Amino acid sequence: MRKKSTARRLRTLALHGFLTPLALVWLFPIWMMVVFSTLPDNGIFSPSIRVIPSTQFFANFANLQHDTNFVRALYVSITVALIFTALSVILTSMAGWALVRYQFAGKTVVVAIILGTLTLPYFAVVIPQFIMVARDFKLANTWIALIVPPLFNSLGVLFMRQSFSMMPPELFDAARVEGVKEWRIFAFVAMPLARPTIAALAIILFLASWNNYLWPLLISSKREMFTAPVALGSLIGLTKVSWGGIMAGAVLLTLPMLVFFVVLQRHFIAGISAGAVK
Amino acid sequence: MRRRTGTAYRFLAPYLLVFTAFWVWPIINSFVLSFQNTRSAPWKFAPAFNWSRLVGDPAFYNALWNTLLILVIQVPIMIALATVMATLLNSPLLKAKGLFRFAFFAPVVVGEVAYSAVFRLMFNLDFGIINKLLGTFGVEAVSWFSNRTAAMALIIMAITWRWAGYNAIIILAGLQSIPEDVYEAATLDRVSKLRQFFFITVPLLRPVIVFCVVLSVIGTMQLFTEPFLITNRGGPGGGTETLGLFLYRQGFTSLNFGYASAVAYTMAGVAVVISLFNMWLGRDPR
Asked: Model pTM?
């Protein structure tokens, strides 16, 4: 018995001895992001090693606001992410519901196209998307261009289809027998039951929109329609720019998501692992 | 289930409309564009125009080579690391699980632009903390942005940092679906933990790992932001130019949509072939 517990203790020690340094390495870039955002530029570019936060965050933010209108960019990002998330949840829930609840002509084709095209990279569609939105419809630098095209995302269809298929159909049939209309059954019976899935889905969609870079980079050329990642990216590589400011922007992009992540960890993890395990 | 085509399509219509307009139609249109000469208006059908150029373009081969090199080195390292992370996070011996989870999973929520900026500063030649730390061990400063090999290594490290935890989340969920009694039986039969890992965990995780590999292949094939922002538009001298970056340059800097579409289709084709190959490798042997 004694021998066994010694072996166990050794194993516990080895486990922590390996994982602790790895965890520190993994946290290091995020820590440095915070440190850089609080150092003046001559502190970032100084020959000494600095890993302790300083006090210049607000000065850095002022520099960032001077380099690019970051407050406006944050406003654009938040608005786009909120509207995109709400619309995507509604559209994909309705589609997922139709796929679970009804038998209809063309169903296999619809499912095959949605699932099949998931394996194609986004780059296969981005050029015609751009030509259509920017050139044919002249919608560059508009809210519609930022919000609507990314709604093709089929993640929600898969999530909601899975969620609705776990609910007992008798529940909906009973409501139907009582004369409740189909859209009311969907909106007032099925959707409330799917709340946990909707929460996980909404979080993943919000994060995707918040961090989306390529599409807003292509479609927004005017500063007042820059999203926060595009505004920040436009400064990287410039010669006369406040790097402390860029880092303050990076912290403002990242910190809210980290807080969300800590508070809503269960939903994040459910959202990410949903596709894999069934 | 009820057969009601009309009602079904009323529920499907809004999503299908967006999906068709912004996904199905562009995929077809991209294919058509790759056979058009878009260098001068009006765009005309010219079947070999872009494809023959692609076949003889050294810049394309450079981008393809870089992309495949990153893929072949980075994906196995990351998946192995993610598997180790997930297995250790799942250990009942681990204390302060929440903290470790946070450390490995946090990069998942960090945006590409934000972390690209941090990596640029950390790997700065004269003032970056990485070179300073290397210096304290007597290692000479590495010029991460002007040496091709170092720049490639930097990109690989950056994506591994960003995505290992993401894959670990998926693998951890897979681990937790393996019934406990399999391990209990093995422990009773005095099978060592290490052997349990290689002969029970890895085979049972096979479908989940294949899923992660396929996701990572698609992701790496379209790698764009990191070489765009960290190594400054694929520098040094195209040393980290990926297919995504090459496509961006052709399509959105030179506005040559036909040629960029040919690149897009090549990218999609390679991604599909590699994914199918992985699924074939990971197929159930029974």
From this structure: 0.93
